[in-house]
């Protein structure tokens, strides 16, 4: 049975959604606030998340960042009608889909099933240039030896793994990192974390092969994927 994480503060919407999801054979758990959502993510694991963008103590973007760091599961945003700017922001941050309120129940279920099928086709293990990452379990090894990353270092690594074929600007990295860890990450701090991550995952940090600098733009993932 697939487990769905619902982050929605509206009681009526939540009640109807929980009934709908249960009738479709899903096991659903609900959080009503950003704080509650983060706490539940630390205690349980899910297969997909439905996240309202506007929450009483924050927003769905912070929840998305925490999900991508801790569980790497598909996220579908629940958005207000006509809120195009928030939709674009969410998709740029890594959301898999969105659906506008009020939505048709059959359409929502179809989108959930499509996102789950897509996730099932994606490898749960990253293996490249001697770097091995169990994305679901959060285990990182280099040349067969387990290495330990801080929360921000691991989050930074996941950003590159989740965007293997594009150049990632420093601005994009800062947007991904700064809020979820409860630490302020500025441009200088980002440089430090890039350096620390390279020291742990590169064969020669002075000549990086995994996290490549694209001068004047940002960074991109390098190396050769053994599964390619």
List the uncertain runs: none
**Domain module tally:** 2
Instruction: Please write the CATH class name of the largest domain.
Output: Alpha Beta
Question: What assembly state would you assign to the polypeptide chains in this entry?
Answer: single chain
Mean pLDDT: 86
Sum up the overall morphology in one term: globular
Q: Mind summarizing the main beta sheet? A: 5 strands, parallel
Briefly, what is this?
By secondary structure, this protein is an alpha/beta fold. The protein has helices at 11-23, 34-43, 60-70, 84-92, 105-121, 151-162, 170-177, 187-201, and strands spanning 3-7, 27-31, 48-52, 54-55, 58-59, 75-79, 97-100, 125-128, 131-134, 139-142, 145-147, 168-169, 211-214, 218-221.
Write the topology of this structure.
Layout: E1 3-7, H1 11-23, E2 27-31, H2 34-43, E3 48-52, E4 54-55, E5 58-59, H3 60-70, E6 75-79, H4 84-92, E7 97-100, H5 105-121, E8 125-128, E9 131-134, E10 139-142, E11 145-147, H6 151-162, E12 168-169, H7 170-177, H8 187-201, E13 211-214, E14 218-221
Parallel strand pairs: 1-2, 1-3, 3-6, 6-7
Antiparallel strand pairs: 4-5, 8-9, 9-10, 10-11, 12-14, 13-14
Helix pairs in contact: 2-3, 6-8
How would you portray this structure in words?
With about 230 residues, the protein is of the alpha/beta class. The chain has two domains: about 5-120, Rossmann fold (3-Layer(aba) Sandwich), CATH 3.40.50; about 150-220, Arc Repressor Mutant, subunit A (Orthogonal Bundle), CATH 1.10.10.10. Helices cover about 40% and strands about 25% of the residues. The protein has eight helices and 14 strands. The strands form four sheets. A five-stranded parallel beta sheet has the order 2-1-3-6-7, with helices on both faces. Helix 2 runs parallel beside helix 3 (about 60-70) and helix 6 crosses helix 8. The longest helix has 17 residues, at about 105-120. The protein is globular and about 55 Å long. The model has no long low-confidence stretch (mean pLDDT about 85).
């Amino acid at each position: 049975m697939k487990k769905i994480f619902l982050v929605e503060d509206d009681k009526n919407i939540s009640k109807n959604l929980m009934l709908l999801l249960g009738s479709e054979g899903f096991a659903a758990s609900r959080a009503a606030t950003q704080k509650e959502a983060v706490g539940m993510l630390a205690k349980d694991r899910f297969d997909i998340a439905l996240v309202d963008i506007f929450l009483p103590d924050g927003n769905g973007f912070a929840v998305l960042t925490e999900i991508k760091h801790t569980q790497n599961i598909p996220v579908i945003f629940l958005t207000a009608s006509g809120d195009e700017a928030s939709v674009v922001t969410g998709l740029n941050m890594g959301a898999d889909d969105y659906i506008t309120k009020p939505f048709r129940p059959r359409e929502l279920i179809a989108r959930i099933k499509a996102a789950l099928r897509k996730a099932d086709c994606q490898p749960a293990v990253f293996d490249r240039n001697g770097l091995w990452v169990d994305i679901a379990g959060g285990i990182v090894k280099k040349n067969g030896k387990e290495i330990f990353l801080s929360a921000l270092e691991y989050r930074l690594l996941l950003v590159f793994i989740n965007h293997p074929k594009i150049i990632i600007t420093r601005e994009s990295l800062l947007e991904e990192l700064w809020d979820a860890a409860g630490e302020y990450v500025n441009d200088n701090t980002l440089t430090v974390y890039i350096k620390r991550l390279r020291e742990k995952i590169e064969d020669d940090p002075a000549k990086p092969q995994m996290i490549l600098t694209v001068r004047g733009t940002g960074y991109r993932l390098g190396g050769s994927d053994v599964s390619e």
